[in-house]
UniProtKB/TrEMBL annotation:
Protein name listed in UniProt: Chitinase
Residue runs in coiled coils: none
Cleaved signal peptide residues: 1-22
GO terms classed as biological process: carbohydrate metabolic process
Organism: Dichomitus squalens
UniProt KW keywords: Signal
Domain GH18: 38-315
Amino acid sequence: MTNLRFLSAFLSCSTLVSCILASSANLQRRDGFIPSGPKFVVYSASAVDEGVLPPLYEIQGFNVLNLAFLQCDGPYGQAKRWADLPIDQRQQLKAQYNAAGVSLVVAAFGANDLPTTNGLDPTTIAGTMAQFVLDNNLDGVDVDYEELELMRSQAGVGETWVSTFTQALRARLPQGQFIISHAPVAPWFEPYLCPGGCYLTVHQNVGDLIDWYNIQFYNQSPDPGYENCDTLLYNAGGSSVFEILGHGVDQSKIVIGKPASTQDMTNGGYMDPAALGTCVAQAVGQGWNAGVMTYQFPHADTAWLSAVKGSSFNQ
């Protein structure tokens, strides 16, 4: 009896230890990969020719790949194609891309998803989207909230929704383990544009929980346009790069977002990659070095990024 009791206790202890180790390993697998230094972000919304992810050799130099879009009623486009892959294939691809220095992130919402207008609870939606990240071997979420009319017409409603959503999302995806970026349109950093403060209020509320902003310096034509270095960097009514910096947003969070081609925008903001590279070089020369975002692959590829980066980030 004594020996059996000892053996039973030993096996129970061994099983408990195994469970703890397995749980720890599972948590470790779920930790995201976060690149250090400047962020070079490319969106993938359209199906690629082969497989699901853009081939690594075609996006060399980018270190974040945003799969679009996860909406409130589920994944679409590249987000759905990724989720539909067998688990082992997702794990293999994630390991491969992370080893190459590329984070895999899901882009949430988009222009066609209006969660606040539709009366959805931000905490509930955050929980669902965080679980999608955990269940699908992803490194985080890019919050592409685009309730443009609501932000301009209802003071504080959109700002409160986004802030609560971000807090709930971060509670499930801890900082330093998972990426949470946001992709606001640039004018939302302009003081007095929105009665509730737009993203200046969001930044004040939860900016410390957001890793960086993939700021959309496009689709705002004809004014300010962001189609030259002056409006992109210095003079855009409060929403250029250095004006946003002057509003108290840390330069390391101000990632310049641009369409890869005229086909990837709806209303202005396109710049030839070489011309954009001139502006980027100016900004780097003045202390900014957060990085560049572009929408989308395949028009944005290694050649596009090389023209935009030049030698600016090698200094």
